[in-house]
Amino acid sequence: MLDSAFCWQAICARDAEQDGQFVFAVRSTGIYCRPSCPARRPKRDNVSFHADAAAATAAGFRPCKRCAPHGQSPAEHMDALVVAACERLNTTEQPLSLTQLAEHIGLSASHLARAFKARTGLTPKTWSDAQRRARLEQQLPMAASVLEAALYAGYSGTRALYQQPATLTPAQRRQRGAGERLRYSIAPCPLGLVLLASSDKGICALLFGDDPIALLAELQQRFADAELQVDDLDLADGLRQIVAQLSEPQRAAQLPLDIRGTAYQQQVWHALQQIPAGQTCTYAELAGQLDSHPRAVARACASNPLGLLIPCHRVIASNGSLSGYRWGLERKAALLKGEAGS
């Protein structure tokens, strides 16, 4: 049974996350639409709600030509085009310019660039370069020579590799902890175990888990180029503040942060820090604030290395469900419950 009040609210918000969950029909026009349809909002008295396109058709309504509720939504169609662009970039032997890629996909270059960045956080060229570099790194240990690995990865030779001896940009090297010694400590907490890691600038990771070995492996994966050192003594006060905040959310930990991520990730993470304890925000609302896409926001949330301190647990789906959480939905539910009661 559809909740008419909830459905109407989704229509008023043009909530794309509800596309596929129901359709609405307008008696005065005989047309049914998706919740996100950009057409002028109808009068509430003229609207009925249906479980799907088949139900609306059976009731005598015809599909809207603008939002195509009986097929892919415009957002889903654009998602598919971006996926096709990624596949094209992955399979082409020669690098493609943005114009060439756009012609293959069937979009203007500017339209493709905006859609691609909204969904991946990267430009097509940056994404392609990162994929090619990842193939190189994967192949190098197994290849007979650097040239063989480079050719397999899609390079025309090794010249480009040695023209850029620093395989990572300074920002990327910092994200991975290149040349750094990071201190960490693991302690029990109300959510199982918590790992706190710090650089000379501040806390760079706060991870939850149940197994200390798995937690250390996650830290090593996030900061692959750093030297990791146990430091239970100096990090004890920080851990006490974290445990205190978990037990009493109003006692927010006051710790210096060393936040590492892409410009887009940091933009999302800064927005997360503006959500007060005890309140939540949907992925769609956050995407609207940032002029981005809910999926891109979700990916940035999933990449957050500072659980609790950057409160990605306060972002939920538009239907009120918890959606996802890097460290498990049970922990997300417990965090929200604790903050709601504080």
From TrEMBL:
Cofactor names: Zn(2+)
Any one GO biological process: methylation
Residues that coordinate or bind Zn(2+): 33, 37, 64, 67
Active site: residue positions: 33 (nucleophile), 312 (nucleophile)
Catalysed conversion reaction: a 4-O-methyl-thymidine in DNA + L-cysteinyl-[protein] = a thymidine in DNA + S-methyl-L-cysteinyl-[protein]; a 6-O-methyl-2'-deoxyguanosine in DNA + L-cysteinyl-[protein] = S-methyl-L-cysteinyl-[protein] + a 2'-deoxyguanosine in DNA
CDD domains in alphabetical order: ATase
Co-factor binding details: Binds 1 zinc ion per subunit.
Record field: transmembrane: none
The HTH araC/xylS-type domain, residue ranges: 79-156
Top-rank lineage group of the source organism: Bacteria
InterPro entries to which the protein is assigned, alphabetical: Ada-like_dom_sf, Ada_DNA_repair_Zn-bd, Bifunct_regulatory_prot_Ada, Homeodomain-like_sf, HTH_AraC, MethylDNA_cys_MeTrfase_AS, MethylDNA_cys_MeTrfase_DNA-bd, MethylDNA_cys_MeTrfase_DNAb
SMART domains linked: HTH_ARAC
Keyword terms, alphabetized: Activator, DNA damage, DNA repair, DNA-binding, Metal-binding, Methyltransferase, Transcription, Transcription regulation, Transferase, Zinc
GO molecular function: DNA-binding transcription factor activity; methylated-DNA-[protein]-cysteine S-methyltransferase activity; sequence-specific DNA binding; zinc ion binding
UniProt keyword Transmembrane present: no
Coiled-coil features, chain-numbered ranges: none
Name of the protein described by the UniProt record: AraC family transcriptional regulator, regulatory protein of adaptative response / methylated-DNA-[protein]-cysteine methyltransferase
High-level lineage: Bacteria, Pseudomonadati, Pseudomonadota, Gammaproteobacteria, Pseudomonadales
